[in-house]
């Protein structure tokens, strides 16, 4: 009788029966199983490799052992996490919708919105929905902002505050530099200011004295620092103009001071 081709599962089944043959010989086991002796002998000789292959195949989710003997167990164990995951996503979606509606109302009313306020509101909505396990973590907040393109007006306020501080520092720095330059030049009253195209200003006969220019800038600085940011932005052209007067040392020298204050 020719050897029979068997699947891995069939080899395991026959191997277990061969091992339980007791004192019977392989020939008797082959007769009892209805298999060719050569097939039974090959199974017995390859028993270590067969068990190793079966053990390795059992670890794969699509193995025959999984499909045949543990179908119900595997399906049950796989479905539960998926259901929980889907429910979690649905719950988070409800929270995100609530937070997004609240955020739009706050922005429309020009109310202050910060990251801490958003997280606090998310926790409040989750509590109202009975989702006590929800956590408004930084990771959740980042995903929420990126997904819904949320821009906080608090970020704009911080950016504007930094810009205003930098403007003040820049203005003071350049004013001090110009004071040193003009002090070294001795306050030349013969140098006439020029336009950006290097043409001479027809309505200006001479530069003001250094004392007059410094006094005007000091008064302007006090007014500038005492007003709101919108007023500060409006007065920037005036400051630039006064600084141009101090920076002019020749008739056709290019004006650089206005470009440095930003």
From TrEMBL:
Subcellular location: Nucleus
Annotated GO CC locations: nucleus
Primary location group: nucleus
Residue spans of biased composition, Low complexity class: 182-195
The keyword DNA-binding belongs to this UniProt entry's keyword annotation: yes
Domain spans labelled HTH CENPB-type: 83-154
Domain of life: Eukaryota
Annotated segments matching region Disordered: 169-197
Keywords per UniProt: DNA-binding
GO molecular function: DNA binding
Entry protein name: HTH CENPB-type domain-containing protein
Species whose genome carries this gene: Meganyctiphanes norvegica (Northern krill)
């Amino acid at each position: 009788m020719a050897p029979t081709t068997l699947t891995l599962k069939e080899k395991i089944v026959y191997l277990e029966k061969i091992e339980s043959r007791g004192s019977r010989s392989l020939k008797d086991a082959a007769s009892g199983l209805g298999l060719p002796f050569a097939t039974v002998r090959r199974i017995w000789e390859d028993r270590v490799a067969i068990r190793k292959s079966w053990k390795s195949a059992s670890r794969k989710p699509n193995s025959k052992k999984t499909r045949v003997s543990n179908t119900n167990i595997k399906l049950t164990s796989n479905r539960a996490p998926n259901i929980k995951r889907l429910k979690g996503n649905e719950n988070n979606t409800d929270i995100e919708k609530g937070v997004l509606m609240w955020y739009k109302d706050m922005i429309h009313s020009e109310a202050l919105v910060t990251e801490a306020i958003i997280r606090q509101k998310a926790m409040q909505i989750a509590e109202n929905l009975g989702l006590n396990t929800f956590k408004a973590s930084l990771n959740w907040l980042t995903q929420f902002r990126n997904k819904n393109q949320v821009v906080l007006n608090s970020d704009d306020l911080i950016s504007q505050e930094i810009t205003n501080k930098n403007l003040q520092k820049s203005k003071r720095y350049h004013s001090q530099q110009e004071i040193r330059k003009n002090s070294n030049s001795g306050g030349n009253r013969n140098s006439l200011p020029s336009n950006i195209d290097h043409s001479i200003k027809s309505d200006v006969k001479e530069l003001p004295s250094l004392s007059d220019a410094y006094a005007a800038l000091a008064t302007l600085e006090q007014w500038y620092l005492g007003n709101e940011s919108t007023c500060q932005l409006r007065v920037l052209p005036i400051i630039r103009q006064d600084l141009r007067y101090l920076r002019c040392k020749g008739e056709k020298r290019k004006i650089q001071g206005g470009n440095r204050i930003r």
